[in-house]
Amino acid sequence: MTKYYDILKAPIITEQSTKLIESQNKYTFKVDRKANKVEIKKAVEAIFEVKVLSVNTINMLPKFKRMGKHEGYKSAYKKAIVQLPEGQKIDAFNV
User: Fold this and answer.
1) CA distance linking residue 82 with residue 87, whole number of Å
2) Any idea what the CATH number is for the domain that residue 30 is in?
3) Is 36 contained in some domain?
4) Could you tell me if 30 and 72 are in contact, meaning their C-beta atoms sit under 8 angstroms apart?
5) Measured between alpha carbons, how far is residue 77 from residues 49, 51, 57, 90 in Å?
């Protein structure tokens, strides 16, 4: 994994992730399923030019969903929660 933009897929902006940003300066991303913590840390530091204190990863399992008579599963993905030191922030999350 050499391309940083292949590792970080998208930011996750939910009510819970917004509370994490405000209270603990932690940012949430959807990342590649094969990426490890070291690669995620290097990608965030390179793309956003910030220092990363810690990275926590979570494998999200597929969820069963039903829409009318159609049934199926949402895709599984890997989620990374990245903590930054106090005073630093990522501007992509400020809307």
Assistant:
1) 15
2) 3.30.70.330
3) yes
4) no
5) 25, 25, 11, 22
Beta strands in the chain (DSSP E): 8-11, 26-31, 54-60, 64-67, 70-73, 77-83
- Say what the pLDDT of residue 2 is: 58
In which band, very low, low, confident or very high, does the pLDDT at 91 lie, cut at 50, 70 and 90?
A: confident
Give the 3-state secondary structure of residue 66.
strand
Q: What is the pLDDT of residues 4-35, one digit of tens each?
A: 999 999 999 999 999 999 999 999 999 999 99
Q: Which pTM was predicted?
A: 0.88
Domain count, the chain: 1
Mean of pLDDT values over 35-53: 96
Measured distance CA(3)–CA(72) in Å, rounded: 32
Q: Is residue 68 part of a domain?
A: yes
Domain limits for position 53: 4-85
Is residue 44 in a domain? yes
